[in-house]
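Exercise 7. Given the encoded structure of a 233-residue chain, write a plausible sequence.
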């Protein structure tokens, strides 16, 4: 049995799955952090791998950019492959000037502008949150590894480019740490189907100061985030 967008057979994907948006980051992590690696998916170039980390089975699956793409893979991982722990390992743009490039955000909730959530909840506003157990373990793991993290809320947008010059001002004033494109739908779908979800986000650019990481750095670095995520397996 397979899902519509993944060519893996049931049983090939672990209960715990790491979810980078970039499929090349999935490939990099599989090749550099895991052993006994098997590539189970290449459909649409959205690489998926299963391997072991310190003796524990773990998978890593690219989701693409945006809530539309990510929502498809998250739904199928939970419903077809019975994945129980879904951990986003992605990047974000910071909207707080003090957050430096490379720092890790533990997202405890995700606001957003997704039409999917607006339609589902008939115009009301659902508070999409991470699983507390995973969030707490990540916080403790970061302390154990001596990795500085910031815990707080993020914003997931479906629109990367926007014409409004002060778009993030109100969110910045209300404590939002950073902006990504997937965490809100991850939290929502996981809650709907009884799975656990967490988002670990590395600051790849600062929207306020204008500083930014290179594309190669986005694909091949951000190891602090990966050390925390793999410590949860």
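Solution.
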């Amino acid at each position: 049995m397979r899902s519509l967008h993944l060519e893996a057979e049931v049983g090939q994907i672990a209960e715990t799955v790491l979810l980078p948006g970039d499929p090349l980051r999935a490939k990099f992590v599989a090749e550099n952090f895991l052993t006994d690696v098997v590539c189970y998916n290449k459909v649409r170039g959205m690489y998926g791998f299963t391997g072991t980390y310190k003796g524990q089975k773990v998978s890593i699956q690219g989701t693409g950019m945006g809530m539309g793409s990510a929502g498809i893979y998250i739904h199928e991982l939970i419903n077809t492959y019975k994945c129980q722990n879904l951990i986003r390992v992605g990047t974000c743009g910071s909207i707080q000037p003090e957050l430096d490039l490379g720092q890790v955000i533990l997202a405890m909730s995700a606001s957003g502008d997704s039409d999917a959530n607006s339609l589902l909840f008939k115009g009301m506003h659902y508070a999409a949150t991470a699983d507390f157990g995973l969030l707490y373990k990540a916080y403790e793991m970061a302390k154990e590894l001596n990795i500085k993290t910031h815990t707080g809320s993020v914003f997931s947008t479906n629109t990367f480019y926007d014409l409004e010059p002060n778009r993030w001002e109100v969110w910045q004033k209300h404590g939002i740490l950073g902006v990504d494109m997937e965490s809100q739908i991850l939290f929502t779908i996981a809650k709907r189907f009884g799975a656990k979800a967490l988002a670990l986000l590395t600051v790849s650019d600062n929207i306020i100061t204008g500083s930014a990481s290179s594309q190669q750095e986005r694909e091949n670095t951000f190891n602090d985030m990966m050390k925390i995520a793999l410590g949860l397996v």
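Remark. The mean pLDDT is 93. Students should compare their own answers with the one above.
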